[in-house]
Design a protein that fits this description.
This protein is an alpha+beta fold. Helix content is about 15%, strand content about 35%. Strands 1, 2, 3, 4, 5, 6, 7, 8, 9, 10 and 11 form an eleven-stranded mixed sheet that branches. The two termini are about 20 Å apart.
Length: about 230
């Protein structure tokens, strides 16, 4: 289910019904307002809904989860107060399947592996550190990765999260010597031209909060030569 339903306001809508809306986030967009004061994606989606449905008053939109600003891919929002707590419960109880794609320069130690670390966030520099053993203030982080494709100079990894920690994928991949392309914060030597990092929330599978049907949504890759090579 990856057909783009709308491109208005540079908004890629992947799925929409009465209760939820799913968009393909661009690099640089923030999902929810922060101290920068930049207009968040949640407000862009509200504007879109207000315009599409000719709504005179405020538009309800619930933020269910977030992606880091330089990351691209699937973001799910609730359009009703009925859907939001149900979606929050699905995410809290880990009843969703989130699959990410990442481009790394260095070949991982194994073709596929399950990484278990303890991550500790430093709010001063907005960065997490991965430890092999539990330390004070750390949280257990688990992900599974596999090499999906070997490109000329990079490796495409597919990642499934078992936990959702601050900068988890970025931090855990850096820990095994595989910082994500463009991710200066976690050790990649050069930035991407658009200030993105090559991490894409590729697929989200979950049960619809109202209809109770299974949904599987895939986000098209960014319009970038290296990403497009991943689809060949």
């Amino acid at each position: 289910m990856s057909k783009i339903l709308s491109n208005k306001n540079n908004l890629q809508i992947l799925y929409e019904d009465n209760h939820i809306i799913v968009v393909n986030k661009r690099a640089g967009d923030i999902v929810q307002g922060d101290k920068t004061g930049d207009k968040p994606l949640s407000d862009v989606v509200k504007d879109f809904l207000k315009d599409k449905y000719n709504k005179p008053g405020n538009v309800y939109l619930g933020v269910v989860h977030r992606l880091d600003r330089p990351t691209t891919g699937i973001v799910l929002f609730a359009k009703t107060s009925k859907a939001l707590p149900r979606l929050n419960k699905l995410f809290a109880e880990k009843k969703t399947n989130k699959t990410y794609w990442a481009l790394v320069k260095n070949k991982p130690p194994k073709t596929q592996d399950r990484l278990v670390n303890w991550l500790k966030k430093n709010p001063k520099n907005n960065k997490s550190t991965a430890f092999d053993n539990e330390v004070e203030g750390s949280k257990k982080a688990i992900l599974n990765y596999r090499i999906l494709k070997t490109l000329d100079n990079f490796y495409l990894l597919e990642i499934d999260l078992e936990t959702g920690r601050h900068h988890q994928i970025r931090c855990q991949l850096a820990k095994i010597g595989c910082p994500i392309k463009g991710d200066l914060k976690y050790g990649f030597p050069r930035s991407n031209k658009d200030a993105s990092i090559s991490l894409h929330a590729r697929q989200l599978e979950f049960t619809h909060p109202v209809k109770k049907e299974k949904l599987s949504i895939t986000a098209p890759l960014p319009e970038d030569a290296l990403w497009l090579a991943c689809e060949d």
